[in-house]
């Protein structure tokens, strides 16, 4: 298995190389430039052309790509045109914030979604099942950003239970107070993101549990006198997890990439909000770094999903 994982990782290397070329060309193809209107609205065209020249933006694309690639192998992703700071430092700071939110939302999503989906499938057509199905239908019908805005308005502004912006409170030092402040800032967006994300898990798991309950191997186990609790624990639940584990890797790496909607609505300084800001300001270095990172995370998500499926079902072997 480890040889297979190593081979898959080595295959990712040329894929990342091709992806880097495409990302670099698409970023350069965007209209506009990172200097017009970002320094001073009254900046002369001559000064803007001078900035473009000294930053190498007038060089042929292959020369710009080669320079960027050389710096990349030295761990340098360039300077941000908007923040005038190294891209590695900016992405690193935002990645920590996104990691906090992603871990909280992921744990909450599966901690709620798995037992709720199992309950709905096991107690089909009960009152609880009808309530869960109604929740999933209504949640799917409402756009995600509407749920975020409603949650922000009710629990952030009207009730004042949670902070509405940022990732940590002002005038908060380090240590335990900083941890508490970070938790306070991720609770509301994390809960809203989890309540929306668990809908797919609940629906998939409910359907799989119902199908597995009526399968031949479950009837055989029941006819042999195996307790219902053990049947669901060792047969139904494990087999019902396969469709969910098939996408688990994508879900985890997707959350690590940053939720654009969540971070934008809550002004949460993570990688999603950084990506939106970089597009608005034509910050090519940041755009290239983030899209390349998202591509790598997607490739790793594929491998992670295969590994999780192989762990859940020993019959499956990754090749």
How would you describe this protein?
- InterPro entries: BPD_transp_1_N (IPR045621), MetI-like (IPR000515), MetI-like_sf (IPR035906).
- It is a multi-pass membrane protein.
- It is found in: Cell membrane.
- Residues 95-305 form the ABC transmembrane type-1 domain.
- This protein has helices spanning 2-28, 45-54, 61-73, 87-122, 127-141, 144-158, 176-213, 216-223, 228-240, 242-256, 260-265, 271-280, 284-312.
- It has 319 residues and is mostly helical.
- It has a domain at 88-272: MetI-like fold.
- Helix 7 (176-213) crosses helix 9 (228-240).
Précis, in short:
By secondary structure, this protein is mainly alpha-helical. Helices cover 74% and strands 0% of the residues. The model has no long low-confidence stretch (mean pLDDT 77).
Give the low-confidence spans: none
CATH class of the domain at 88-272 reads Mainly Alpha
Radius of gyration: 24 Å
Output the CATH topology of the domain at 88-272.
MetI-like fold
How far apart the termini lie comes to 8 Å
Summing up helix and strand content along with how strands pair, one would put the structural category as mainly alpha
Tell me the total number of β-strands.
0
Please state the second-level CATH architecture of the domain at 88-272.
Orthogonal Bundle
Largest sheet data: none
Strand content: under 5%
What is the string of helix and strand elements?
A: HHHHHHHHHHHHH
Domain ABC transmembrane type-1: 95-305
Keywords: Cell membrane, Membrane, Transmembrane, Transmembrane helix, Transport
GO cellular component, one term: plasma membrane
Family: Belongs to the binding-protein-dependent transport system permease family.
